[in-house]
Amino acid sequence: MKKHRMLTAILLLGFILGVHEGKVALWKEGIKNPIKVFPYQASQLPEEDQKRLEQGVRVESISQLKKLIEDYFS
């Protein structure tokens, strides 16, 4: 739960879920470096999910981010 609170605090608008150095990460649009790198290798995900993340998945809401994280890492 504590992790989700931190994400809630930083998530307003314009975030992208993608891949950084092989791991799933979260960026604020327009910022070069990710604001959060998750301890999960993108290569562990199904190929279709890997492709989506490589292209970048726009995150529109806190609930969408939570759902994506749960879908990928549960």
Structural account:
With 74 residues, this protein is an alpha+beta fold. 41% of the residues lie in helices and 28% in strands. It has helices spanning 2-10, 47-55, 62-73, and strands spanning 15-20, 23-28, 36-41, 57-59. A four-stranded antiparallel sheet has the order 3-2-1-4. The mean pLDDT is 83.
Unreliable stretches, pLDDT < 50, 5 or more residues? none
Please state the CA-atom Rg, rounded to the nearest Å: 11 Å
Strand and helix order: HEEEHEH
State mean pLDDT (0 to 100 scale).
83
Number of helices: 3
Q: Could you state the oligomeric state of the chains shown?
A: single chain
Strand order of the largest sheet: 3-2-1-4
Strand content: 25-35%
Report the span from N to C terminus: 15 Å
**Got a strand count?**
4
Query: Shape from CA axes?
Result: globular
Assign the structural class, choosing from mainly alpha, mainly beta, alpha/beta, alpha+beta, or little secondary structure: alpha+beta
Major beta sheet summary: 4 strands, antiparallel
Q: What share of residues is helical?
A: 40-55%
